[in-house]
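Format notes (please read before filing issues)

Several people have asked whether sequences and structure tokens are stored in separate files. They are not. Every record keeps both together, in the order shown below: the sequence lines, then the token lines. Line labels are part of the format and must not be stripped during preprocessing.
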Amino acid sequence: MVGVRIDPVEEEARVLKCVLVGDAAVGKTSLIVSYTTNGYPQDYVPTAFDNYSVLVRVDNQPIRLQLCDTAGQAEFDSLRPFSYPDTDVFLLCFNVMLPSTLRSITEHWLPEISKSSPNTPIIIVGTQSDLRSNIRFVIELCKKGEQPVSESKARMLAEELSADYIECSALTQLNLKQVFDAAILAALRGKSQLSLQRFCPKEDKKSKIREGFRRIVTFTKRLI
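Then the structure lines:
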């Protein structure tokens, strides 16, 4: 069983670091607050950099999941990467009601995190999925000549990047636990692979990075 919440106890827990990135106001903070407190924040307060922690049990082993909330505003571009060292998994978040935030994943967020963490697992997260059924929001999008990001389009991006895709709602908590369960599993798999690589010949990291950017650029062209 994955991600069973447990009460804080004085026992040594394995630490996993999960960093959330994405455009401003896509709902990163709401995801964390809803998951860690079981409540939804009523007011929007722009984030600078905040850290949260939750203790869970995976296969009867305590895991302390450190959640790092980052600012999506451009003025933090030079500071944000200081949050990236030692990250075990990234959650790349976009708002399913704002197509531009999906484009930002390939145009901005993937290139940014790839500079410092090219081999760290990523999960694509579509936020505010509950608004797809909100007629008022859909009409407003139509007036701009846009429509909500379809699940199939987002999943196609995730497949291109060999990443998992989960869409959720912090308000209704639909699939919310699944997001962080997937993050825990991806982080644990990533650590296991790193351990194995210590006993295997090193691969050409530069070629890996070039291949990653080739796939990013290819998919960006498809979106355009």
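For reference, the curators noted about this record: Residues 205-210, 216-224 have pLDDT under 50 and may be disordered. The CA atoms of residues 51 and 189 lie 23 Å apart.
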